[in-house]
Amino acid sequence: MRRTNHNLDDFALTLPITQAACRTAQQFANQQPTPEKAEQVRLNTLCVWVVNEYLEMMDIPTQLTECNSWNSIMRLCSDVADLELPGIGRLECRSVRLAQETCYIPPETWEERVAYVVVQIDESLQQAKLLGFVRNVATEELLLSQLQPLEDFIEYLAQLRQTPSRTLVNLSQWLVGIFDAGWQTVESLWNQPEIRPGYAFRNGETLVQNDPNKTQALTRRAKLIDLGIQIANQPVILIVEIRPKTDQQTGVRLQLHPTGNKIYLIPGVQLTVLDQSGTVFLEAQARSADNYLQLQFRGEPTEQFSVKVSLNDASVTQNFII
Q1: Given this model, what pLDDT does residue 166 score?
Q2: Whole-angstrom Cα distance, residue 215 to residue 152?
Q3: Helix 19-30 crosses helix 35-57 at what angle (to 10 degrees)?
Q4: Which of 51, 86, 236, 294 is least surrounded, with the fewest CB atoms within 10 Å of its CB?
Q5: How high is the pLDDT of residue 168?
Q6: How many alpha carbons lie under 13 Å from residue 223 in its C-beta half-sphere?
Q7: What is the pLDDT of residue 232?
Q8: Which residues of the chain have pLDDT under 50?
Q9: How far apart, in whole angstroms, are the C-alpha atoms of residue 102 and residue 293?
């Protein structure tokens, strides 16, 4: 059963937008190349800030400055409005204006968020209403009538803390052209000067990607991995390359690259492969002058593994199934 927008007001929580929030949002907006992008970043920042304050009021730990929405490169390259909840996962915080009946949800967030919170920002940017949340989305336009109340949201987060969700990236689907949200072609990342490593060729290839044994069956996708303040606001690029083998196995090659025209990875960055039980299977660590890290292995159909990118106490893990 759906509620009307009138009913939404009965469940909404109104919070003031602080001057600190406005200053931060304006600072982030000033870094953008166009007025449209600046407005997107301003609203995204305000939404994340307000949701963060609400969760702090509810004694739910957050990591505001370590999410993609607080990373200058990620803000420039993507439509990001995420908030990290330690031990739970990432929320998506999305804005709507007065009189809107739907909320836009970018497709790249559909598979990697534990919930989606919708925030109504008034025209004066002085107050915000937390309208509600949903657990999952599968369309770009979310009907506000589908939102659940905030009291259910807090209970849901408590459940997730006890049983964290584990999303699996299905590599077999990659071979038939079905790719998980957030995984892009290497060329689409390499073509962005603010992301491309300093040693990348203009055509999107790098020295380490040249392989005399390449076949048409090879499939490759890349993803930006953000370790927050641990790597000085510079995300890294994780490239996953798969190739079917004649013995029914799948060859997997992983590469980790720097971004932002950097030539070398930050020393100490680790690339780790874990088996389904969580045991370390392969591991590599960047030294003082490493352009990239690379790991290779083979896997059986339906085999699961995880790839962890880490530096000091910060880490991001991606879970896969072949």
Answers
A1: 65
A2: 51
A3: 150
A4: 86
A5: 81
A6: 22
A7: 56
A8: 1-6, 201-216
A9: 43
Which domains does the chain show, CATH number per domain?
Answer: 5-161 (no CATH), 168-321 (2.60.40.10)
Task: Give the per-residue pLDDT at 20.
Answer: 94
62-90: per-residue pLDDT in tens?
989 878 899 888 898 889 999 988 878 88
How does strand 115-121 pair with strand 89-96?
A: parallel
Q: Which two tokens stand for residue 38?
A: 């600046």
Q: Which of 115, 286, 226 is nearest to 295 (CA)?
A: 286
